[in-house]
């Protein structure tokens, strides 16, 4: 089989399917992964993300995840916003939701596209096998994507591309086919520190290093229970994720618009009123966020975040919206509501 020709046709097929960039690397293309991941976990940087430590062997070594794999095909799908994600921060009575979560769950959208490309590949190479992954398996997509030449991990640790900026999802197709590997990308961040400087919680102890325990994306999505008091006030009105370091990156001037309307922002999720969100019970939460990645954190954690945002709003008129939550059955929600009311009353004095 002429794998070079097949790779060229595979790239064309992936681009036609909606992906914006394709690259290939070997499963063992990043030999430093085990040491880097072990140091990260040993330092406790993973916080409450126990799954990171539990499946560290697979995550650190793609070859261990599927020993038969001979190539990893990395693909990028843009979700570049049409609006300014930082604009909502100037409206503290509104909720800031990460751009990637403003419509359908990207896991489902990207995986369907990956499967389509994968089926095409199997049809062209009978006997070949594939496995597709989108962020839920123990695969370190960003280092592999850099090894495959799609971009580089910037100082904010997210993947950056000179052609796409940093607004894109990553998907992976592991295959038993042996394709020629692409050249790895190198950093083009230069002396820029915009992403580090804008971080509300100083979550970057150094360039190219992130402490998730201070990251608002981790705190609003992964962290269970009350958030440390010294971090709550720094979260502002960000109730699900944080886009500050992504939105400020100057490489976004080259970003491409996404093609899938399922990833385009819903109007009611660009800057929803905090007062309306605070009223959501479990059934209403599930209905409002049906098909959204936000649904996976559950109503209680979401409302906890909303209460923190109300407390940070500086608007005492929102006290009636958060007051009923003082008696919420979830201890973290009730604690957040009490904190919010106290903070707003202090703003009145």
Sequence-ordered SSE layout with sheet pairings:
Elements: H1 3-17, E1 21-25, H2 33-42, H3 50-54, H4 56-60, H5 62-65, E2 71-78, E3 96-97, H6 106-124, E4 130-133, H7 141-147, E5 152-153, E6 159-160, E7 168-175, H8 194-198, H9 216-221, H10 229-232, E8 238-240, H11 244-247, H12 267-270, H13 274-277, H14 282-288, H15 298-312, H16 319-322, H17 331-348
Parallel strand pairs: 3-8
Antiparallel strand pairs: 1-2, 2-7, 4-7, 5-6
What's the short version?
By secondary structure, the chain is an alpha+beta fold.
Report on the architecture of this protein.
With 349 residues, the protein is α+β, with helices and mostly antiparallel strands. It has 2 domains: 3-82 and 104-175, NADH Oxidase, CATH 3.40.109; 194-248 and 266-348, no CATH class. Helices cover 39% and strands 10% of the residues. It has 17 helices and 8 strands. A hairpin with a 5-residue loop joins strand 5 and strand 6 (159-160).
List keywords for this structure.
8 strands; two-stranded parallel ribbon; 349 residues; four-stranded antiparallel β-sheet; NADH Oxidase; 17 helices; 10% strand; alpha+beta
What is the total tally of β strands? Answer: 8
User: From the alpha-carbon coordinates, what is the Rg to the nearest angstrom?
Assistant: 21 Å
CATH class of the largest domain: Alpha Beta
Task: Using the 3D structure, state the CATH architecture of the largest domain.
Answer: 3-Layer(aba) Sandwich
Largest sheet, strands/sense/barrel: 4 strands, antiparallel
Shape assignment: elongated
Strand order of the largest sheet: 1-2-7-4
Order of helices and strands: HEHHHHEEHEHEEEHHHEHHHHHHH
Distance, first to last CA: 76 Å
Overall pLDDT score: 92
Number of DSSP helical runs:
17
């Amino acid at each position: 089989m002429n794998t070079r020709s097949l790779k060229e046709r595979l790239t064309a097929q992936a681009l036609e399917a909606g992906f914006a960039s394709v690259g290939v690397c070997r499963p063992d293309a990043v030999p430093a992964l085990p040491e880097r991941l072990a140091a990260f976990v040993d330092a406790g940087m993973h916080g409450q993300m126990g799954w990171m430590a539990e499946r560290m062997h697979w995550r650190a070594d793609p070859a261990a995840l599927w020993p038969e794999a001979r190539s990893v095909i990395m693909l990028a799908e843009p979700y570049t916003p049409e609006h300014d994600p930082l604009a909502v921060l100037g409206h503290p009575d509104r909720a800031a939701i990460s751009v990637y979560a403003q419509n359908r769950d990207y896991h489902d959208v990207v995986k369907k596209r990956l499967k389509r490309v994968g089926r095409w590949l199997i049809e062209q190479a009978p006997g070949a096998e594939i496995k597709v992954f989108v962020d839920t398996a123990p695969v370190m997509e960003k280092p592999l994507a850099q090894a495959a030449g799609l971009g580089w991990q910037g100082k904010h640790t997210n993947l950056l591309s000179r052609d796409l900026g940093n607004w894109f999802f990553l998907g992976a197709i592991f295959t038993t086919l042996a394709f020629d590997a692409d050249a790895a990308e190198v950093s083009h961040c230069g002396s820029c520190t915009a992403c580090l400087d804008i971080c509300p919680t100083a979550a970057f102890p150094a360039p190219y290093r992130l402490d998730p325990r201070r990251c608002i994306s981790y705190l609003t999505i992964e962290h269970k229970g009350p958030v440390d008091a010294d971090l709550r006030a720094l979260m502002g009105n960000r109730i699900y994720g944080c886009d500050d370091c992504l939105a400020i990156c100057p490489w976004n001037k080259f970003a491409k618009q996404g093609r899938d309307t399922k990833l385009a922002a819903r109007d009611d999720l660009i800057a929803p009123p905090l007062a309306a969100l605070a009223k959501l019970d479990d059934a209403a939460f599930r209905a409002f966020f049906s098909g959204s990645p936000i649904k996976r954190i559950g109503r209680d954690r979401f409302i906890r975040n909303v209460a923190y945002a109300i407390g940070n709003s500086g608007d005492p008129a929102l006290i009636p919206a958060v007051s009923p939550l003082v008696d919420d059955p979830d201890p973290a929600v009730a604690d957040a509501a009490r904190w919010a009311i106290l903070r707003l009353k202090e703003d009145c004095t």
